[in-house]
Every structure is written in structure tokens, then in C-alpha cells.
Amino acid sequence: MAESRLGKIGEIEKSKVCHLCNNEGKPGGCPRCGLTPRSATSIKMLSLDVPTDIIPTPYQGVLWEKPNEPDKPLRFQQFDDSLEKVNNLFLSGKVPSFSMFIGAPPKSGKNNFAYSCMQTALAQKFSVAPLLSTADWRRLQKVSQMNPFYKLYGKYKWDDLISLDVVFMFVDHSDEKYDEIPLLKSVLDSRAAFCLPTFIISDYKLNDLVPAWNKESYSAIYNSADNRDYYRYPVVLHRFN
């Protein structure tokens, strides 16, 4: 993979700008330079100078690949196909017009998917938040209510993060996970007001994030209606046995 990317970079350096696709690639490959949106984005990613607090070093320049599991159950295939469609939207220079809740077991490639989409968006000149935990967002939200100038880790203000083009966040493993739904609702509602999507990755199913005494509280952010506000009520994807 690295050799082919470097080869493409060499071709681009020689030809400078492809007048047919403007180095943006074309589906199936540009007839002149051969670039696809994926390879064009790969070149942009490799040339990015991305702070490690946004994209950790092990994920820099790494694009997500759909798992190759020939005998996987249909529901897993549908999950992977859905992620591929979202990944392809980012590769084509677009940000999805819907939010997502992505639930799958640990080591399912969720972080790889998130960082791939995040740096693809960065390569397309979108503004992107770091991948923060729900605990980080909760602390930022609570302290910011008393001090609107508070910066998480001395860098990130609530007002700034909430209005970025792309926000991925992950559900942490603390005991406060049973308070996640109100927090997720606050973030989703706040960003929906700007018509901005929110992407939530989780090792838990959505209905596992609610206390035993209130098993239906997940409905605060779950809505299956076709005409719903997709920024406010995310598409829910699960990949569990």
C-alpha cells in the first residue's frame, strides 16, 4: 500500500495538476492520472501536518477498509456496508447529512473508522474535533455552564467544539455511562441546530446505556420515523452477536 501511494505521489509531482480531475480523482479512476477519490484523498492525507491530539500517530495516513469476512452474518454485512457508504461520502469530499450511533464490541475497528473519516475530512478542508470521550464532553459541558471561557485540556471550548464540521465522540467505560443519554441528547440537539452531524462510537448497544429503572430512556435520542431530523436523531448501527 505504501509503495503504491508513493508511486501516485511521484506521478502527481511530475504532472503537477491533472486538468481532467484537478487531482480529486474520479470513480473507477481518472482516465488521465488514474486517481480515484480514495487515492486522491490518500495523497492529501499523507501531506497533512496533523497534530497528534487530533489524529494519533498510529492512525495517521491509515484509511479504513471494510472487513473481509466471507461467512459473516447478514446483519454484520449490512453494518459493514453502511460504514463503507459513510466512508465513501467522506472520501468524495462530503460530510454526511445525518448523525450516527455506532455500537460494536471492542477491537471491531471503530477507532480506525473514526480516525479515517476524521482525517479524510481534514484533507478536504473541513474542521474536525478531536476524538473525545463522553466523560470529556460531560466535564466540558458542566464546567462551561459556570465558566463559558473554560477550555478542556487548556485547548477546547464548548462553543468552538460544538460548531465544528465533524465531531466523533466515544462512550467511555465509567459508571457514569448510565448518564450518557442526556449528554448525547445535549450534544446532538446543539449540533442539530447548526445542521451538523455527530458520530458516536460505543462498545455498548444504545439500550445498554440506560439504568435498569428507566429502560426506555434511550428513546430521547432514538427515533425510527423516516421524516425525523437525522442530525438530532442518529442512525443506529449495531454489530453484536
Description of the structure:
- By secondary structure, the protein is α/β, with parallel strands linked by helices.
- It folds into two domains: about 1-45, no CATH class; about 60-240, Rossmann fold (3-Layer(aba) Sandwich).
- Helix content is about 35%, strand content about 10%.
- It is built from seven helices and five strands, in the order αααβαβααβαββ.
- It has a five-stranded parallel beta sheet, sandwiched between helices.
- Helix 3 runs parallel beside helix 4 (about 110-125).
- The longest helix is centred in the middle third of the chain and has 18 residues, at about 75-90.
Keywords:
disordered N terminus, 241 residues, globular, alpha/beta, Rossmann fold
Task: Summarize the structure in short.
The protein is α/β, with parallel strands linked by helices and 241 residues long.
